[in-house]
Each structure stands twice: as C-alpha cells, then as structure tokens.
Design a protein that fits this description.
With about 270 residues, the protein is an alpha/beta fold. The protein has a single domain, classed as Metal-dependent hydrolases (TIM Barrel, Alpha-Beta Barrel). Helix content is about 40%, strand content about 15%. About 50% of the residues are buried.
Length: about 270
Amino acid sequence: MDWIDIGCNLGHESFAGDWRDVVERAVSAGVSQLMLTGASVTGSERALELAGENPARLRATAGVHPHLAAEVDDTALMRLRALHGHDLVAAVGECGLDYFRDISPRPVQQRAFEQQLALAEACGKPVFLHQRDAHADFQAILAEFRDRIGPVVVHCFTDTRRAMYDYLDLDCHIGITGWVCDERRGHALKESVPEIPADRLMLETDAPYLKPRNLRPKVRTHRNEPCWLPWIGGTVAALRGVSPALLAEQTSANARRFFGLPEVSSSEAA
C-alpha cells in the first residue's frame, strides 16, 4: 500500500538527531511521501531545507501557526513570500486560528491569518490550515478569501460534524490524524469520519504529536512518527467500512492531486 502523510513536523527538535532514520522507517512502512509542516518562519525554512535533502519523498509548507501570530510582520511576510516561490514548497501554511489557549491575542491571530491567505492568493498555491475552538471566526475569514485562493485543507480536523460540513461547503479537504484513535476524545470524530467524501479526505500524523493511543504493540516513546500513518489509516478504513488498500489509494491520490506531488517508485532510496 502507498500512503502519504500530509502533515509531519520533521523539523521539530525531537527529530534533530535521527530525521533520516524517521523517513526510512516511514518508507519501509509504506509511507511513500511526507509533507513537512512549516509552523514558523524559521521552521518553514528548515522544512524546505529538509525537503531539499530528499525531493522525491519530501515537500514543505511555509507559514506561521496562530500561536506565533505575533511574529508575522513585514519581514516575516517577505521571507514567507520568498519561500512560496520555491518548487519544493507545496502549500501556504500552517496558518489559521487557535482559541484553545489564546497564546496569541485573537485580533493578532486574525490579522496574521488574513495576511497569509493574501500570500496564498498571490502565489496560487494550496493552503494548509489550522483551526481549534475558533470555528465561527475561522469560517468567516476563510469564506471572505475562498473564491480567490486555490485548494484548501483543514488539517488535523477535530471539530464538530457541523463544522466539517461548513468546510466541505467551502470546497475544503479534511485532514485526519491519530486523534481518531483516541478513546478519550475521538468519539465525535469517529462518527463524522465516515461522512467525509472520498475525494476530500487526506491522512496525516502531525508527528511528533498525536501518537495513536490504540497502537499495538505498544511502543515506549511519546514521540509520534510517520511510520504509524498506516495504523491511523487502518482505523479510518474500519470506520468507513472500506479496505485499508482502497483508503490508501484514495487518500494518496487526493494528496498527490492537492499538493502536485510526483509519483514515486518503491525502488527510490529513502
């Protein structure tokens, strides 16, 4: 089976010493390509650097997470604009709104979100979005830009069924993580996942975060890795009543179409 992880924070400090091994383990597990999430300006530059080490397998996004929205000034926007000009940067983001902890003031988050959507409008690349506990404002801002930007994925979706349909109505894709494997808080998501149209669903680990809690056999690490994407895929396939092979085929085709990823053969080196 051929899986694609559309959201992996490979530039995270926890991967600093073994990121190449992490990619090798992912490829060995059937994860042929990874999108490396840029969540800050420097993090986006690092994601591009890593993607350049293995362009057959890796692509980057470039954006600023809402927690860091205060860093989005004229200089940051200039650096992001330059990043979006690189062929290995496949999407604008991670950007959006996060009211769960309000680490950045909400008006600052909203302004940074709007500025990054404007960058997406200018470069024409897909958009990789984050939303937590901010649906109403997020939906309103996205709707304002929606007819001026390209493909959109709401990554690491954990919200309500109603929110999911609001995003589908805006012609968005939905990214599902190991949250759906969490017996404590994934119940509502489990009910919604079967209703996502097959051509709008993509999968991600959000590694090193959100390690699947139902992973068997248990692994003695808190760090999530992209090699466990097939486990998430198996969980999602069971919820949707399809085979893992079919789900891998569907979600990987969606990811390649969305991000413009090349086909990659199993013989290409990790």
